Amino acid sequence: MPLVKFDLIEGRDEKSLKNLLDASHRAIVKSFGVPERDRYQIVHQHPAHELIIEDTGLNFERSKNLVIVSVTSKQRSNEQKQNFYALLVQELGESCGIEPNDIMISIVTNGDADWSFGLGEAQFLTGKL
After folding, report:
1. Residue 1 has pLDDT above 90, yes or no
2. What is the spatial distance between Cα 93 and Cα 88, in angstroms, rounded to a whole number?
3. Average pLDDT, stretch 34-45?
4. What is the pLDDT of residues 21-39, one digit of tens each?
5. What is the number of other CB atoms lying within 10 angstroms of the CB of residue 64?
6. Residues annotated as catalytic (active site), given as ranges
């Protein structure tokens, strides 16, 4: 936990996807302090015409390397979130050659009762986590 979803324009090869996922996980571990094996990632690839991601008036261009990162997580501090944004952009730039203007991030928060990692239990509520 957190659960991280990536929406991308299709066409990346397996090695590129692994680099992207590994770089993203490094940013999560560093900024949120989660254990190394606390890794839940899902990739969705789309034809280019299925992703319209503009700039909200910020006047930058997006390329075919666009990455939309959606994080569902327990509450994190504003400092942790801002640290994550910066680390993720750094990691994706250094490891994957993705430009900062091609990275959009959204974090949705929830609570302990909103997670079951299996077995039909809410492990945060039962004390197993």
Report:
1. no
2. 8
3. 96
4. 999 999 999 999 999 999 9
5. 12
6. 2
Spatial separation of the C-alpha atoms in residues 63 and 106, rounded to whole Å: 19
DSSP per-residue letters across the chain: --EEEEEEES---HHHHHHHHHHHHHHHHHHH---TT--EEEEEEE-GGG-----TTS-----TT-EEEEEEEE---HHHHHHHHHHHHHHHHHHH---GGGEEEEEEEE-GGG---BTTB-HHHHT--
Residue 27 CA to residue 94 CA, distance in Å, equals: 12
Residue 69, judged by CB atoms within 10 A of its CB (0-12, 13-18, 19+), counts as buried
Residue identified by tokens 């910066």 is 86
pLDDT tens digits along 75-88: 999 999 999 999 99
pLDDT one-digit tens code per residue, 108-118: 999 999 999 99
State the Cα–Cα distance between residues 103 and 93, nearest whole angstrom. Answer: 10
